[in-house]
Amino acid sequence: MTLHNDRILRALRRQPVDRTPVWLMRQAGRYLPEYRASRKRAGSFLAMAKNPELACEVTLQPLARFDLDAAILFSDILTIPDAMGLELYFVEGEGPKFRHPVRDAAAIAKLGVPDMEGELRYVMDAVRTIRRELDGKVPLIGFSGSPWTLACYMVEGGGSKDFARIKALALNEPKALHALLSVNTDAVIAYLAAQRAAGAQVLQVFDTWGGVLSPAMYREFSLPYLVRIARELERGDGDDRTPLILFGKGNAAYLPELADSGAEGVGVDWLIELGDAAKRTAGKVALQGNLDPATLYGSPDAIRAEVRRALDSYRDGNNGSREGHVFNLGHGMSPDMDPEHVAVLVDEVHAYSAR
Ligand code: CP3
């Protein structure tokens, strides 16, 4: 099948592009009225994510509105622990929860890697359906949570402000936590490999909570597992290689190490100047980011100015070249954002970077 737009693949290989590619984390979601309508019909977020036709429908919604350079699979990072038996559910206004969190060595010892074409077949079916419907329009991004970020939800039993339970586990029973991170890593590698086999053309790992760790703890409990994924995930060679992006919130201090991980791309948040991030990764990886999502609350003129600043910052830190940049936000969009502002952002990335 011919791919009509390969800008994101070229940018991740640090090859020249006619304009900087752009996609947005959480580009399919509640800020779109058509998403809210699909969700209402489905009944719930999980019913939508577990139905390949509906997952495909909402994946394509932002592409019909905006000139985006990639689609991202509509799913969730918590599908893996759900398939491990923890039972994911959502309470309106409270976010994700697990009916059976894992809190001790005995519970951790019982965990195994789920069957990717069994319990998680609905995810692979969604990837296959979306690839068919995209028909080569843009590449499809598959994704997973990082071993540490998944462990946060699995141990806390849901979202957390202080990460008290998992940090106590790290301090008191580091062996048990390493056992959990190890099974999570095996599962993430199998999950990403299965999404690739089903048709995903770019893979991203979300280490959303790596930044809540002290440097010593990050280097013990998150980074080594990201490196293992980058090294062990089989993803082909040359121009057929499926690029891997390691996104992390609060990862600025670790950029040189992430650049040496073997991943093709690193996603950064807005707490670092993109040009500084480019200098600190020295052309070893492509960079993805990094507008503060709150930029979308600004006026169209303010959004355009911030887009230009980020594009120029990257270029200035990358020896005057825009190569190796995938434009994105530094984290996901929120439900109260204005779709018209998204169009302003996407169009400005293309118009300004093409000059
Ligand atoms: O980017 C995309 O458009 C793809 C879809 C996607 C979702 N979740 C859909 C979703 C992706 C990539 C994710 C990843 C995810 N899920 C992460 C890592 C990324 C990040 O934001 O840091 C995390 C931490 C989760 C766990 C999770 N799932 C949370 C915290 C929530 C939000 C709960 C809430 O009420 O806001 C979810 C649910 C979820 N996942 C929604 C969407 C669109 C909202 C569901 C809804 O109510 O319709």
Characterise the protein shown here.
The protein has helices at residues 7-12, 33-42, 45-49, 52-65, 79-86, 105-109, 121-134, 147-156, 164-172, 174-198, 215-221, 223-232, 255-259, 274-281, 300-317, 339-353, and strands spanning 71-72, 88-91, 95-98, 140-145, 202-207, 244-248, 265-267, 286-291, 325-329. It is α/β, with parallel strands linked by helices and 355 residues long. The chain is 48% helix and 12% strand. The two termini are 31 Å apart. The protein is globular, with a radius of gyration of 19 Å. It is built from 16 helices and 9 strands. The structure holds coproporphyrinogen III (CP3). The site of coproporphyrinogen III has 20 residues, from strand 3.
Estimated structural class: alpha/beta
The hetero molecules present are: coproporphyrinogen III
Classify the oligomer.
single chain
| pLDDT averaged residue by residue | 97
Note the gap between the termini: 31 Å
Q: Main beta sheet: strand number and arrangement?
A: 7 strands, parallel
SSE string, helices as H and strands as E: HHHHEHEEHHEHHHEHHEHEHEHEH
The poorly predicted ranges are none
User: What percent strand?
Assistant: 5-15%
Rg estimate, integer Å: 19 Å
Count of individual beta strands: 9
Helix content: 40-55%
Q: What is the general shape?
A: globular
User: What is the count of helical runs?
Assistant: 16
Biggest sheet: strand arrangement: 1-4-5-6-7-8-9
Helix and strand topology:
Elements lengths: L6 H6 L20 H10 L2 H5 L2 H14 L5 E2 L6 H8 L1 E4 L3 E4 L6 H5 L11 H14 L5 E6 L1 H10 L7 H9 L1 H25 L3 E6 L7 H7 L1 H10 L11 E5 L6 H5 L5 E3 L6 H8 L4 E6 L8 H18 L7 E5 L9 H15 L2
Parallel strand pairs: 1-4, 4-5, 5-6, 6-7, 7-8, 8-9
Antiparallel strand pairs: 2-3
The structure holds coproporphyrinogen III.
